Amino acid sequence: MKKILFSLFICALTLNAISQNATVEKSTFGIQTGFLGIWVHNESKLSKLISLRSEIGLDTGVTIKDGNNISGYLLTPVLTLEPRWYYNLNKRVSKSKRIDGNSGNFISIKTTYHPDWFVISNESDLNFITDISIVPTWGIRRNIGNHFAYETGIGVGYVHYFKKDNVVLINEPDVAVNLHLRAGYRF
Question: What value does the mean pLDDT take over residues 16-27?
Fold first, then answer.
């Protein structure tokens, strides 16, 4: 009888541990790089499955002269706020997969602002136009070891360009595409 009760007690503990709800981390901080820039980010917990990612970095672009040929590169500052809903954390826990560092699939609304503070470029007399974009995005993040991670995402949304003096924008509202593949280090 004692063996049966002990077995039931162990099973109850196991079921209790498995049935616990997964949650995003309270706060994560890291640095990422990809094909088109370098960024420092922080994710703060808003609820069990939602975090707010704030990011500052440098986005890479190309310069085009006469509308035909790529003539150079540019680096411009970028500020991003992105609420993320990690929708599959409970499923990952039930399959004994990692969720540390907010490792999971997410849906987000990425809001990006490119201010005209400075531009690093091999071109002189470059006229950069400030913009803001709002892009619904689907993505995944996975961890490699304790500190390294990779992330990818895709989304299509809206971008608005802020006019400057002596600049003519042909079709003002435009489509923004968020296609990213990044690798990074989590502190």
Answer: 73
DSSP annotation of 119 reads -
Task: Output the six-digit token pair for 75.
Answer: 């680096």
The Cα 160–Cα 106 span in angstroms is: 25
Beta bridge partner(s), residue 66: none
**CB hemisphere CA count around 107 (13 angstroms):** 3
What amino acid occupies position 155? Answer: G
Give me the residue spans of the domains in the chain. 24-186
**55-97 per-position pLDDT tens digit:** 999 999 877 766 666 677 889 999 999 999 999 999 999 999 9
| Helices assigned H by DSSP within the chain | 2-18, 89-94
Q: Where are the alpha helices (DSSP H) in 49-98?
A: 89-94
CATH level 2 (architecture), domain 24-186: Beta Barrel (2.40)
